[in-house]
Amino acid sequence: MVKCELTKGESKVIAISFANNSPFVFSDLSENHPYNLPPLVVATANPVNREDSALYDHSWFSKNRPTPTFSHTKTARTAQVWAPHRLVPEGTVEYRFKIKAPTKAGTYTESFCLVAEGLSDFEDTSRVTIKAIVK
C-alpha cells in the first residue's frame, strides 16, 4: 500500500512499481510501441477499468488509465536500465502519474493493476492500493 497526504484539491505525483514475474516481454504505449508486443498499462482496479476514481486527475490518459507509459525499467540481474519502454522477464517497471485529492477531507483508497491491452488484466497479481489522506 502506498500512503500519501494531500490537502483538499491538491494534485500530487505518485510512483508505483511492478515486477514482471512472467516469461514475457512487455512494452508501454509510447510513440515507439512495437506492433508485436502487447502494451502494458496501469488501470483502475476493483473492478478493472472502473471510471469513477475519487483520485482522478485531468492529466490522466483516460478515466481509467492514469498513464500508458513507464517512467523507467530495470532488469533483476544487472539493476541497469535495459531499454526504454520495454519490460523484460524478472525486470521491474515504475509508473508515475498524478492523483488529485477530492475537495472533501477524509481517507480515500484507490486500487490500480496492470493490463496487457488486448490480452489480459493482472488484477489478482499486480494490484497496488493508494491510501490518500485528505486534510
Question: Which properties best describe this structure?
Answer:
3-stranded antiparallel sheet; elongated; mainly beta; Immunoglobulin-like; 135 residues; 5-stranded mixed sheet
Notes on the structure:
The protein has 135 residues and is mostly beta strands. It has a single domain (2-134), classed as Immunoglobulin-like (Sandwich), CATH 2.60.40.10. It contains one helix and ten strands; from the N terminus they run βββββββββαβ. It has one helix spanning 123-126; strands at residues 2-6, 11-19, 26-27, 40-45, 72-74, 86-87, 92-100, 106-116, 120-121, 128-134. A hairpin with a 3-residue loop joins strand 8 and strand 9. The chain starts with a strand and ends with a strand. The model has no long low-confidence stretch (mean pLDDT 86).
Mean pLDDT: 86
**Helicity, in percent?**
under 10%
Q: What is the count of structural domains?
A: 1
Dominant shape: elongated
Query: Any idea what the radius of gyration is?
Result: 15 Å
Task: List strands and helices in order, with pairings.
Elements: E1 2-6, E2 11-19, E3 26-27, E4 40-45, E5 72-74, E6 86-87, E7 92-100, E8 106-116, E9 120-121, H1 123-126, E10 128-134
Parallel strand pairs: 1-10
Antiparallel strand pairs: 2-7, 3-6, 4-8, 5-7, 8-9, 8-10
Would you kindly provide a brief summary of this structure?
By secondary structure, the chain is mainly β.
